[in-house]
Amino acid sequence: MTLEQKAAQTVIVPIYGENLASTSRAYRQLAALVRDHGIGGLILVNRVRYGVVRHAEPEALSTFLNRMQRLARVPLIVGGDLERGASMRVEGTTKFPHNMAYAAARDLDASGAEGAATAREARAVGIHWVFAPVADVNNNPDNPIVNIRSYSEDPREVAEHVKAYVRGAQANTTHPVLVTVKHFPGHGDTATDSHMGLAKIEASRERFYKVELVPFRAAIEAGVDAVMSAHLWVPAVDEREIPASISAPVLTGLLRQELGFKGLVVTDAMDMHGLSKLFPPVEAAIRAFEAGNDVLLMPPQPAAVIKGIAAAVRSGRISMARLNQSVLRILNAKVKLGLHKQKLVNVEAVADEIDSEDAEVSARRVAEKAVTLLRNESAVLPLERSDASCWFVLSESRYSTQGRRMMDEIAQRAPKAARTLLDPQVPATELDAVAATVSACESTVVGAFSGVAAFQGSVGLNEGYTRLMESLLASGKPVTLIALGNPYLIRAYPKVAAYLATFSTAPVSEAAAVGAVLGDFAIQGKLPVSIPPIAKQGDGIALSARPTVQ
Is residue 366 part of a domain? Predict the structure, then answer.
């Protein structure tokens, strides 16, 4: 391989999974990177148009990946952020709950099953590198980007679920995937989204070793294939105000030498502001490589980055031995995946591989077991007269599908109950009118979506929803609040009569929330995080299912 070809193997660029026309500009640009520059791989990301998130269609994605693989002299490795299964990026695949739901359900076997199902569905559509599981310890209630993506605030609990997931995902040796823990060295104890700026971990070195590093150490012992470096500053390890993703003391000193990790190190997306605001694309890429990363994920200006890495080797800034070391790791990973023997996807078999009833059942069971009851004044739950209740579902976007499953479940299980689906763009006058309708209801149930997303900056309800909640609480009718996502939501509304947390915004969690309120199954979840001063980790009120009427 030439120097430029070696440098190109370290670069992974984004795709949206659409089967692009060969005459389109997007296709020509990508084809040039694959055929002419010889980039190392692709990462599937979601396209967002007019506020609508669009996932790839399985067959279109597989067909397009085959077209790209045929252009590549060295097989492409294809990755994806699949923290909730392939469904995060691909339609028609199993929609699993968020990680924190698995800890609330206290089900390590289910974490392993999720890893196995994710690996199977990923390989079926042509994805080889799973950027999951999240190994961050969510010990900061105000964290705007980790939250329910983490399993728990207990490092040992996080470690156990991480190990279970890794082993489950690696169980398929016939069609293996690469499994990745992230975001090293730990993104849980920060209140800054690294998509928006440089986050900082204030912990002492001693605390850092006892908390943040525990799950990563466990993952390495379990044989995880890759570690993703984070764009956050860790003064306890490197006093310079720079991201860990470009810090040699963090990646070479701590990860490689101290923890003994020998697999692939990959940056988090290099277009995130936690890095991109500090250095121009080529300099950021060179610094990331110097620090110890093997793979540069989504660098802006990839062609320029390839030339920059090659130039840094020619100038002596990066040694040829160092470049060869990373390229060898990348090529060995492709061999482990069997890409040198079979790099194309069997498109006709895709539908059979991603349609698994067992995986759907597992996701539903976890969602139900995860539901955690933290307050139940005057035994409000399960609802005695569900038909006399008013339900308000607060979605996070007018253009999302959030709440639709919940509305359907209410219609089926409590057909006479009043139900309203709202979005953040509803005018204040309409919200006031909605709040006034509770006078006809004996009780009120609010399902509030509060998930984590890049560039959001916070995890909570907007001003309009907050005003609605205050009106509902002032009505004198008992209010049940269901946190679909952020479990800390009760801190803003401590006067609710009942409080349930699902730890996920997934459709199966919507269904589980309705079932729990109506007493369809026993509530048994335990809180994986503490919510001072309201609840401590491990809290959870057990509630039996409503007796079945014979």
Answer: no
**Residue 345 to residue 30: CA distance in whole angstroms:** 19
The domain boundary residue, chosen from 296, 325, 354: 354
Cβ pair 375, 490 in contact under 8 A: yes
pLDDT tens per residue, range 500-528: 999 999 999 999 999 999 999 999 999 99
Six token digits for residue 209 = 């070793």
Range of the domain at 24: 3-354
| CB contact set of 188 (below 8 Å; sequence gap of 6+) | 136, 137, 138, 139, 140, 143, 146, 150, 153, 212
Work out how many domains the chain is built from and give that number: 2
Side chain identity, residue 290: E
| 132, 147 contact by CB (below 8 A) | no
Decide: 161 and 137 in contact? Cβ < 8 Å.
no
Are 279 and 406 within one domain? Answer: no
The backbone torsions φ and ψ at residue 2, rounded to the nearest 5 degrees and listed phi first, read -75, 170
CA neighbor of 266 nearest in space, from 454, 10, 531, 541: 10
* Residue 214 and residue 332 in one domain: yes
| Residue 221 backbone dihedrals phi, psi, to 5 degrees | -65, -30
Domain finish residue from 319, 354, 389: 354
Please check whether residues 342 and 442 belong to one and the same domain. no
CATH number at residue 443: 3.40.50.1700
- For the record, the structure tokens of 379 come out as 């035994």
Residue 361 scores a pLDDT above 60: yes
Residue-wise pLDDT for 195-219, tens only, equals 656 888 888 999 999 999 999 999 9
- DSSP assignments along 344-411, one per residue: S--GGGHHHHH--HHHHHHHHHHHHHH-EEEEEGGG--S-S-GGGEEEEEE-S-TTS-TTHHHHHHHH
Shared-domain flag, residues 189 and 312: yes
Omega before residue 187 within 30° of 0, cis:
no
pLDDT at 464: 92
Interval 469-497 mean pLDDT:
95
Q: Residue type at 427?
A: P
| Rounded Cα gap, residues 435 and 473, in angstroms | 10
Give tens-digit pLDDT for 110-156.
Answer: 999 999 999 999 999 999 999 999 999 999 888 778 899 999 999 99
Is the same domain home to 127 and 258? yes
Q: Which amino acid is at 430?
A: E
* 550 within a domain of the structure (yes/no): no
Question: Which among 33, 97, 92, 24 is positioned nearest to 62, based on CA atoms?
Answer: 92
pLDDT at 252 > cutoff 80:
yes
- CB under 8 A, 24+ apart: contacts of 530-538: 530/153, 531/141, 531/374, 531/487, 531/488, 531/490, 531/491, 532/141, 534/374, 534/490, 534/491, 534/494, 535/374, 535/490, 537/152, 537/153, 537/154
Instruction: Identify how many contiguous H helices and E strands the chain contains and give both numbers.
Output: 19, 18
In a domain, 527, yes or no: no
Cα 89 to Cα 58: distance, rounded to the nearest angstrom: 10
